[in-house]
Amino acid sequence: MLVEIVTTGSELLLGEIVNENSRYLSQELNTLGYSVVYHTTVGDNPDRMEQVLRTALARADMVITTGGLGPTQGDMTKLIGAKVMGLPMEYHPEISAAIRQWVHEHHPERDMTANQERQAMIPAGAAFFSNEAGTAPGVAMQHGGKMLVHLPGPPREMRWMYEQRLKPYLLRTFGSQGYIKSVYVKIYDMGEAFIEEKLMDLVQHQSNPTLAMYARPGFVEVRITARAATEAAAAVLLLPLEKELRQRLHRTAVAYDQETMADVLGRELLKRGYTISAAESCTGGLVGSLITDVPGASAYFRGSAGTYCDEMKQHILGVATETLRTYSAVSPQTAGEMAQGSRRLYRADIAVSTTGLAGPDGGTAEQPVGLVYTGIDGPWGTIVRKDIYPGDRTEIKRRAAARALYYVVQYLLENTK
Amino acid sequence: MLVEIVTTGSELLLGEIVNENSRYLSQELNTLGYSVVYHTTVGDNPDRMEQVLRTALARADMVITTGGLGPTQGDMTKLIGAKVMGLPMEYHPEISAAIRQWVHEHHPERDMTANQERQAMIPAGAAFFSNEAGTAPGVAMQHGGKMLVHLPGPPREMRWMYEQRLKPYLLRTFGSQGYIKSVYVKIYDMGEAFIEEKLMDLVQHQSNPTLAMYARPGFVEVRITARAATEAAAAVLLLPLEKELRQRLHRTAVAYDQETMADVLGRELLKRGYTISAAESCTGGLVGSLITDVPGASAYFRGSAGTYCDEMKQHILGVATETLRTYSAVSPQTAGEMAQGSRRLYRADIAVSTTGLAGPDGGTAEQPVGLVYTGIDGPWGTIVRKDIYPGDRTEIKRRAAARALYYVVQYLLENTK
């Protein structure tokens, strides 16, 4: 089944944001076996939108739009969609009630506006998808052998509605379109050469499964994909390869599929019954934030002491005045003492610290911007790693924080079973 | 002049990468005063590509494609472009010589292949752009009042050719297309419908400047845009509106243009010579991380104490055992004492704290997932705000952290000049 994704919104045509909705929907729909053959983006112009929908419905079997469902004046996708499909609009009191309820819960001091009320109008005969992440309902309508779907524009709402509403609806309505199954591996400190040496022979001269590799911020993602009529058949194709892959990467700090390095860290700590704490200078709190992105992190995470000046490194973490004076705050010595201080303060089994120069100013020939020391203190002693990261301030922080978690996992894997 | 950008490549339709070429070209062309009104993506299918180009040339004045110029068999954009424009292909020995030269320099052991040689064929009468970043030349052709441009697909080559070749060519060929100037305002604690009621009268029945609004994670962005022949004229059009807007939002904690709320906080703290610290439970360190995303934050940020368990809230921040027992860790009382404790510990002028339930588990009827208390302690006493955020764990953290900065700015604006 041929699919066209139509995204709306002038912020895309002005180049203010990248089109993440098209990417996400394409990836998801391809996984379900649909062929996405066109992406189109159009602005808030009713005539252009109408023509785009007519063109899309002429050349694709299913057209999915995102955006233009909200309560403001510019939001008109649903009206134009109904016109193009030749369906009248109908008022649904149950949608109105749901919107009123949402407004009441989230803005108890306010009442539903006329524009919000207008969202309760949908094309006659259309299926509608309630929106737990906001007020705008999605709709799906079939007419003349074509399917037109409207999803909301904000990526978080759109993803929720796709996952919770549209995906099950498509499976119910059209059944399976074949199945594509992938395994992802995120590799944090190795270049393509390692991957080549360790993994490439696995898929040479094969077209199903296939292997592809993508440079992501701070890591390399390897994807192995199989295509088959059913999920079970795709899994069977993938199984030997996946097994071999996991065997080769055993005791290597990598993350599989949707896992982040914080997930891996949490799993490895829980398995061993260890707690962890952090001490952060240049990452400012990002290490603690990444660790606590994992549900249930309170079982092993005790906290992170952000110390952004020398005085607090001494006062809170007990870094020696002598150390700071002799070696400066950005040094392996300070990183080590920060980790030791955090472990002591939080009474944790393992502590990790970061200290470095995130820039843009303050770099020197000996201490360039991007220089970061990561300290780890635990039952097997104190270690310090040195890195120089590329990128701007937030990129350096992001890489340093992700790598800090990676180093802790490596420390655990090297020293325990 | 209306522009359509046509990007090609199956990696876009498979959702493997975001469409950075469309974003980049849109941003650049809009700055030059062109109106980008459509984006289309199509795969390596000749019939679909031809139809897409015909549709694009019918509805836009200029069509710019990226991708499909390389030496491999699948690269066919130029041939189809010439067909659609009704122009024959011509061999250009000077292009051939340039390609041979490039191959010689980069792969001295090889000779030019037949496929590489084929790149020297371009549509009759077309301008061609040499490619210093690779072998594929770009082309621009005019016919029947329409302009069709082909740029290479790899983002680095495409950018180089746009900046060094196409942009000067467009300025030479069409002259100035006018200028577009925008002002952005980020509003942190109001929904779209309510902003509409507050600001919409400013631009009702106006087409220049225009107002648009976008839901972003944790805030709403309002954009006011004017279009004129010159930058100065656009600024003049925008000025009264911008002045009125700033007046209406005076002493409201909003961020203008590229600013984040962390930038605003930094500016307001520096202006008053105050320092700040944080104490974080549910945000895990994200408040500190956001504050330190701002270059030069060390001038006012002392650090953030992440305390992820009751024991550390007592031990590090001095929250009373009695408070935790009577009211629990997620309470206005604990939030207030955390802020007081952080201010004391870091010897800061102002401290901000977060404590709440980021979920997904642990919610109750009285304390639902998403409930967050934000405490502020400073020279004007202790205040606590209560919010219930929608979204998943990371979304709740992100909203709570952004909102915490917003509350501090509000506290500053309300209590000082």
Automatic annotation (TrEMBL), chains A, B:
InterPro entries per UniProt: CinA (IPR050101), CinA-like_C (IPR036653), CinA_C (IPR008136), CinA_KH (IPR041424), Competence-induced_CinA (IPR008135), MoaB/Mog-like_dom_sf (IPR036425), MoaB/Mog_dom (IPR001453)
Pfam family of the protein (one): MoCF_biosynth
HAMAP family cross-referenced by the UniProt entry: CinA_B
UniProt family annotation: Belongs to the CinA family.
SUPFAM superfamilies (alphabetical): CinA-like, Molybdenum cofactor biosynthesis proteins
Encoding gene, per UniProt annotation: cinA
Domain spans labelled MoaB/Mog: 4-173
Full protein name: Putative competence-damage inducible protein
